[in-house]
């Protein structure tokens, strides 16, 4: 992967997505969408629920990061995550190669009695991704499902353990290096700590 590699981060205008965009910008050509306006170079105002083949063809990404999620509306966020995965998969399948990185959550693996709506939405993303993984592999597409524990971003400010959460910048750098790997196929990774 190099400066000619095009990365599209859906949900990259704030929080962890913004940190991930900054990390990718060091070595790749990055476009971001998000709920919030951004002065970031490569920002495109676009609703994740409206992602379609025409939009993807215009950007022509090699790597698509499915990061957008808000706890303000679980149903819409879940639908958006699934739309992004479906449309990204179809686009890259036609292209014949590429990578999809789903930024999920540990709640996508383990039931969360404190926030069952969030866990259900994250389990839905895991289920959809698992259902298309074999077809993706045969089509030359790598799908990486990332399951971090809580990240030190604005979404978690106020938590008593905030200082012990995963550092967003370190996680972003790790994911960029993981995405750049050519020597092995990364399918699913649970991230407990980066420090």
Give keywords.
195 residues, alpha/beta, six-stranded parallel beta sheet, 5 helices, 16% strand, globular
Please provide the ordered H/E string of secondary-structure elements. Answer: EHEHEHEHEHE
Helix fraction by DSSP (H/I, runs of at least 4)? 25-40%
The class by helix and strand makeup works out as alpha/beta
Broad shape = globular
- Biggest sheet layout: 6 strands, parallel
**Model regions low in confidence, pLDDT < 50 over at least 5 residues:** none
Count of alpha/pi helices: 5
Number of strands: 6
- Placed side by side, the strands forming the largest sheet appear as 2-1-3-4-5-6
- Radius of gyration over C-alpha positions, nearest whole angstrom: 15 Å
* Mean pLDDT across all amino acids: 89
Q: Beta fraction of the residues?
A: 15-25%
Distance between the termini: 26 Å
Task: Report what the structure shows.
The chain has 195 residues and is α/β, with parallel strands linked by helices. It is built from five helices and six strands. The chain has helices at residues 15-25, 53-59, 74-95, 116-138, 168-180, and strands at residues 6-10, 29-33, 63-66, 98-103, 141-148, 188-191. The protein has a six-stranded parallel beta sheet, sandwiched between helices. Helix 1 packs across helix 5 (168-180) and helix 3 (74-95) runs parallel beside helix 4 (116-138). The longest helix has 23 residues, at 116-138. The mean pLDDT is 89.
